[in-house]
């Protein structure tokens, strides 16, 4: 069972997300937060697999809340805004995914499953903005510290492949893929698969 915390300052939005998620037999909503501080406190208490995080919230915005929760849980940012600073800021803070609120119900449910499983997800509407933002900040060339296998894994991440798909593509075990992904992120100074995909796309 995938446990989820919903953080959004609009009660109607939280209710709508809850209804969508509770229609999936493998997802359970364990709490709701109306601001960033409450989101951090509830996430630390319940340790959900995924936090669905709005960006513009009172007391503590979603980007800072994401930064504080990075490493504790997976963060899926769901927002109305696709501004460059929000996209870039959320992923730099450690978000595993970024979707707009006009996303359909089926896509949201699948996004929760993907993020809970350790995969990244970026809304197609914001991919171009993300690539542009990373292109302005990334190194000019791929670091020489990546091994040949790690370059293969980065290429797969750039194509949006899941761990299982990478394992099949490279004919290696899935736990080995997870190890390579972790090393690629560490060597490139990135915090999520989504960042790695954007990095590769901007090369």
CATH class division of the largest domain: Alpha Beta
* Rg over alpha carbons: 16 Å
End-to-end separation in angstroms reads 38 Å
Class by alpha and beta content: alpha/beta
SSE string, helix = H, strand = E?
A: EHEHEHEHEHEHHHHH
Keywords: DNA-binding, Phosphoprotein, Transcription, Transcription regulation
Domain HTH luxR-type: 139-203
Modified residues (4-aspartylphosphate): 54
InterPro entries: CheY-like_superfamily, NreC/VraR/RcsB-like_REC, Sig_transdc_resp-reg_C-effctor, Sig_transdc_resp-reg_receiver, Tscrpt_reg_LuxR_C, WalR-like
What's the quick description here?
The chain has 203 residues and is α/β, with parallel strands linked by helices.
Walk me through the structure.
- Residues 3-116 form the Response regulatory domain.
- Pfam families: GerE, Response_reg.
- It comes from Herbidospora galbida.
- GO terms for molecular function: DNA binding.
- With 203 residues, the protein is α/β, with parallel strands linked by helices.
- The protein has 2 domains: 2-133, Response regulator (Rossmann fold); 138-201, Winged helix-like DNA-binding domain superfamily/Winged helix DNA-binding domain (Arc Repressor Mutant, subunit A), CATH 1.10.10.10.
- It is 53% helix and 14% strand.
- The protein has a 6-stranded parallel β-sheet with strand order 2-1-3-4-5-6, with helices on both faces.
- Helix 6 crosses helix 10.
- The longest helix is centred in the C-terminal third of the chain and has 15 residues, at 174-188.
- The N and C termini lie far apart (38 Å).
- The model has no long low-confidence stretch (mean pLDDT 85).
């Amino acid at each position: 069972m995938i446990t989820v915390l919903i953080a959004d300052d609009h009660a109607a939005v939280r209710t709508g997300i809850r209804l969508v998620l509770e229609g999936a037999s493998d997802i359970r909503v364990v709490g709701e937060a109306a601001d960033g501080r409450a989101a951090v406190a509830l996430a630390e208490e319940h340790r959900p697999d995924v936090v669905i995080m709005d960006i513009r919230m009172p007391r503590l915005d979603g980007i800072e809340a994401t930064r504080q929760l990075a490493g504790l849980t997976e963060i899926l940012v769901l927002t109305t805004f696709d501004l460059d600073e929000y996209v870039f800021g959320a992923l730099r803070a450690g978000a595993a995914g970024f979707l707009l609120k006009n996303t359909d119900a089926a896509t949201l449910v699948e996004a929760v499953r993907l993020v809970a499983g350790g995969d990244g997800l970026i809304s197609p509407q914001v991919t171009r903005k993300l690539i542009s933002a990373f292109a302005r900040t990334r190194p000019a060339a791929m670091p020489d510290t990546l091994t040949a296998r790690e370059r293969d894994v980065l290429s797969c991440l750039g194509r949006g492949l899941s761990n299982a798909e990478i394992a099949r593509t490279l004919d290696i075990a899935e736990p080995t893929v997870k190890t390579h992904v972790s090393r690629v992120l560490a060597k490139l100074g990135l915090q999520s698969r989504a960042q790695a995909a954007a990095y590769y796309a901007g090369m």
